[in-house]
Write a structure and sequence with these properties.
mainly alpha, 4 helices, about 70% helix, elongated
Length: about 140
């Protein structure tokens, strides 16, 4: 169980930092191809005409939320295991919707899908430990 906590304490800030950097960049440059990898033409099958709304959603759902959950896990807050699993589901949903809207699956998607699954598993393991009742003797 301590490996689940350690993995969670590594993955959540990693995800949060990436979400903040990516979200702020998309918000600051919603119509420009600053990094050279995301032209606006990628959005042709989505309801968005710029990266502004996706940037705001990324910042909140995969930037700020995982850092808040990290603090909950760090403080051993009740339900921090379920919060971690929830974050894994949020990331999994984000990636699924992104792949469908962009009609692309690239290696970073697979990398982050693995992180999402790890967060779900780690969160459920942490929750199991938090809800287990000590044996009475």
């Amino acid at each position: 169980m301590k490996y689940a906590r350690l993995g969670t304490l590594i993955l959540l800030p990693f995800l949060g930092a990436g979400g903040i950097v990516g979200g702020v960049h998309l918000i600051a440059h919603p119509c420009e191809n600053q990094w050279g990898v995301m032209p606006l033409s990628l959005l042709q099958y989505s309801p968005f005409h710029s990266y502004l709304i996706p940037g705001i959603l990324l910042l909140i759902s995969n930037g700020l939320l995982p850092l808040w959950i990290y603090l909950r896990v760090r403080r051993s807050h009740p339900f921090s295991g379920l919060s971690t699993a929830f974050q894994g589901c949020v990331l999994f949903g984000w990636l699924t919707i992104e792949c469908v809207m962009l009609r692309i699956v690239a290696w970073p998607h697979l990398f982050y899908f693995a992180i999402a699954l790890a967060l779900i598993v780690f969160g459920l393991l942490l929750n199991r430990r938090q809800t287990s009742v000590p044996a009475q003797g």
